[in-house]
């Protein structure tokens, strides 16, 4: 089963009104996804996996126009962190870099939803592939990920 079909099947069981969008073009970065959708870069919900010095993994979902404050992230998780490499991302999430869906993960990890996402009525998360998107509200994303709210971002674009 393709990753995008796996994500849609997972949604069908829990939130059948949510539908994945599949594109012909690459949407693996916030800028590419925003261009494909005709929206602001900030509306892209980027999912980033971090590995703490303790060995634990943490998934942070933030708006596409912010960068993460690693000091704030360290304070949040209680340890220094580094960005997971592509092999770790695939092993832990079950999705490739550029297509990390923030739910239906291969390994259960804490998920943090950054406050930067709240600026938008709807955000677009990757749905398992580098050419997919899922329109979803912050509240729905919080519910289906069992995420924890956080504020670890710094706005980088006006």
Question: What descriptors fit this protein?
Answer:
YbaK protein; alpha/beta; eight-stranded mixed beta sheet; two-stranded antiparallel sheet; globular; 5 helices; 10 strands
Describe this structure in words.
With 158 residues, the chain is of the alpha/beta class. Strands 1, 2, 3, 5, 6, 7, 8 and 9 form an eight-stranded mixed sheet that branches. A two-stranded antiparallel sheet has the order 4-10. It is 28% helix and 27% strand. It has a single domain, classed as Alpha-Beta Complex (YbaK protein), CATH 3.90.960.10. The model has no long low-confidence stretch (mean pLDDT 96).
CATH topology: YbaK protein
Q: How many structural domains are formed by the residues?
A: 1
Overall pLDDT score: 96
Report how far apart the termini are: 40 Å
Total DSSP helices: 5
Provide the succession of SSEs. HEHEEEHEHEEEHEE
Class based on secondary structure composition and strand pairing: alpha/beta
What percent of residues are in strands? Answer: 25-35%
The CATH homologous superfamily corresponds to YbaK/aminoacyl-tRNA synthetase-associated domain
Shape: globular
The strand count comes to 10
């Amino acid at each position: 089963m393709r990753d995008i079909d796996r994500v849609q099947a997972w949604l069908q069981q829990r939130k059948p009104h949510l539908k994945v969008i599949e594109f012909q073009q690459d949407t693996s970065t916030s800028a590419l996804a925003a261009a494909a959708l005709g929206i602001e870069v900030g509306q892209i919900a980027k999912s980033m996996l971090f590995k703490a010095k303790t060995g634990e993994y943490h998934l942070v979902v933030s708006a596409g126009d912010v960068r993460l404050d690693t000091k704030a992230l360290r304070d949040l998780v209680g340890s220094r962190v580094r960005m997971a490499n592509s092999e770790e991302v695939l092993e832990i999430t079950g999705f490739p870099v550029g297509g990390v869906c923030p739910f239906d993960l291969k390994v259960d990890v804490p998920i943090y939803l950054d406050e930067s996402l709240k600026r938008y009525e709807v955000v677009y998360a990757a749905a398992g592939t580098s050419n997919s998107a899922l329109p979803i509200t912050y509240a729905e994303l919080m519910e289906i990920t069992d995420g924890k709210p956080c504020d670890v971002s710094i706005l980088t674009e006006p």
